[in-house]
Amino acid sequence: MGDDSKDPIDHARTTRQHAGETMKNGANAPALIIMALGVMAMVFGLAAFATGATTAGSIGATIAIAAYLVGGVWLFAAHRRVRVQEIRWAAEHPQAEAQPPTS
């Protein structure tokens, strides 16, 4: 029973602007997975440093930093896209109450 609408904001069930954005906007899923991989790479890197394997630790830390950057940029871009659609929706529905932006 997935939501097949193109609008990532759930206007019908909430008055909060970004409530459910993560659940309704599937574009966030790859970024969240990438960031989870970054966490695992950081754990690997810290474990490698703790055991004295500095090369493996450096590789793990580098992968973690790259994953955090890629995932963060992806989430930022997805949120900006949602914000633009939210502004467009408010312009197309002047009768609806539009809250001031919170993000």
pLDDT < 50 stretches: none
Strand portion: under 5%
- How far apart, in Å, are the first and last alpha carbons? 29 Å
- Number of DSSP strand runs: 0
Q: Note the run of SSEs as H and E.
A: HHH
What structural category do the secondary elements indicate? mainly alpha
Radius of gyration over C-alpha positions, nearest whole angstrom: 19 Å
Helicity level: 55-70%
Assign an overall shape: rod-shaped
Instruction: Compute the number of helices.
Output: 3
Q: Would you write up a description of this structure?
A:
This protein has a domain at 27-92. It has 3 helices and no strands. It has helices at residues 21-24, 29-50, 54-92. Helix 2 runs antiparallel to helix 3 (54-92). The radius of gyration is 19 Å and the shape is rod-shaped.
Question: What topology emerges from the helices and strands here?
Answer:
Blueprint: H1 21-24, H2 29-50, H3 54-92
Helix pairs in contact: 2-3
Short description:
By secondary structure, the chain is mostly helical. The protein is about 65% helix and about 0% strand. The protein has a domain of about 70 residues.
